[in-house]
Amino acid sequence: MSIGVSIVEDDASVREILSGWLAQAPDLRFVSGYGSAESALEGLPEERPDVVLMDISLGGMNGIDCVRRLKPILPQTQFVMLTVYEDADHLFNALTGGATGYLLKQTRREELFSAVKNVHAGGSPMSSNIARKVVQSYQRPLPSNTDVEGLTPREWEVLQLLARGDLYKEIGESLGISVPTVNAHIRRVYEKLHVRSRGQAVARYVQLPPRQTSPVAARTR
After folding, report:
1. Which of 66, 69, 90, 214, CA to CA, is 20 to 30 A from 46?
2. What is the pLDDT of residue 148?
3. What is this structure's pTM?
């Protein structure tokens, strides 16, 4: 049985190339193509493709936020980011937002086909240099006990929701605080963990022992 694949890409020429590739693949089936996140949010829940290739930089809503909205509606669909962005922030935001794979747009056709089959079979395909960034993030030194103990209970809650992929507004709503207050807490978390971005903060968070995390994410689902 063929694997149904949809594309969300605002560049019509790229979308056409990808759909042409999929049409020629024996084990894959092109389902649909969308030029915006907004149109994908309308059409994909009805089509329920097996795999979605999602660009990050779209005209309106970005691809990461689109995945974050679609994943709860399409839990069986696997989302693979297909993008030009190689930085850790985009990578970790995409993965915490619900993406299962992360490929760069220079990925060759056969590699793309293999990645689609891989993610459908339960894997998490990534371009080689992207996978290297993930490994490097886990090789960073753990935060010291002083850094960890320096976080207040509220800062811990903010960090956990940040790692879950919540937007600042969603964090504020979950904790009953304003967005400026969320920003203030996040700045202090960055300072205490000696990081400069959301991606670095998430990388540090996932290295922490389970006993040091709190159940706030489970409570606010």
Report:
1. 90
2. 58
3. 0.65
